[in-house]
Amino acid sequence: MRGRLAPSPTGALHLGNARTFMVAWLRARACGGQLVLRMEDLDHPKNKAGAAEGALADLRWLGFDWDEGPDLGGPHAPYTQTERKAHYAAALDRLRQQGQVYPCVCTRRDVETGQSAPHTEDGLYYPGTCRGRFADYETAAQTLPQGRLPAWRFRVPSCEIVWFEDVFGGMVEQDVSEACGDFVLARDPQGAGYMLAVVVDDAAMGITEVVRGDDLLPATPRQLLLYRALGLTPPAFLHVPLVVSEDGRRLAKRHGDTRISTLREAGIPAEQIIGLLAWWCGWAAWGERLSLRDLLPRFDLSKLPRTPAVLTPQVKAYLGINTE
């Protein structure tokens, strides 16, 4: 077993992130496996100064450890995605040579305008407008205003049914060509985009199981197409329900400050937070204070609820979270 923790410096670590990371940590440690920490920092416009260092500090404070990472090094270094662009460029070049990607000049607004009906989780379906439109990337780039570059899209075969068995959720099946159409791999000419990067990195780092939030479940069939196109062996996938507010939406500032750093500064013990996360997972009683290692003998994936964990008034009061 080789699992991974993959924080992103687009914001501070919050309760929802910590709960998912806890499941990933327990999955690996409960069977004597290894954990890799990789900083997924390719989303430059959204990256926050100091967030990468803060995520590592928060994870350490909560009791997490890992065997390889940007702070420890290891045989698969570097462990920061912006330092691994050469790997993504090589993968993109392979896909180009196989004719499986093409340059696209469509903006998000172009795609939104062309929608006849919502098809995907974000309401966007791409019908292949730029398929065969340009001889090469350079020709596509010449049609755009200075400063804008084409994106790379993966050419999804028609009627491509992808299925896999999620470790937690069971069988998943998706016709990618109908669900989203040709999807964006990168908006960087060197191929440094999230969808391609996670596939390349997980394969290169020998990850055997990916634990992440179920908001990423619809993206998994696309990633499996990339594994196949690149001749790589995919890991197993385990998608867990998110932590949401009472209105069922993702955690946001309007729901109260759920950042680990804020709770830490307020004097909330790490064991109180871990105990709460374990209660959400069905592994602890309300109010128990526990360490991650206390949870190893209690870890039981079958007890994990299949519905989202909810940030209720009871939880807010317990952690001293307010929305003022």
Please give a handful of descriptors for the protein shown.
alpha/beta; two-stranded parallel sheet; Rossmann fold; 2 domains; single chain
How would you characterize this protein structure?
- It is a single chain.
- This protein is α/β, with parallel strands linked by helices.
- 32% of the residues lie in helices and 15% in strands.
- The strands form 5 sheets. A 3-stranded antiparallel beta sheet has the order 3-4-7.
- Helix 3 crosses helix 7 and helix 7 packs across helix 8.
- The mean pLDDT is 93.
Structural class: alpha/beta
Helix content: 25-40%
Name the strands of the widest sheet in spatial order.
Answer: 3-4-7
- The CATH topology of the largest domain is given as Rossmann fold
In a few lines, what is going on in this structure?
The protein has 324 residues and is α/β, with parallel strands linked by helices.
Outline the fold blueprint:
Layout (H helix, E strand, L loop, with lengths): L1 E4 L9 H15 L4 E4 L13 H12 L22 H13 L3 E4 L3 H6 L23 H5 L9 E4 L6 E6 L3 E6 H4 L3 E4 L7 H11 L4 E5 L6 H10 L6 E5 L2 E3 L14 H6 L4 H12 L10 H4 L13 E3 L1 H7 L5
Parallel strand pairs: 1-2, 8-9, 10-11
Antiparallel strand pairs: 3-4, 4-7, 5-6
Helix pairs in contact: 1-10, 3-7, 7-8
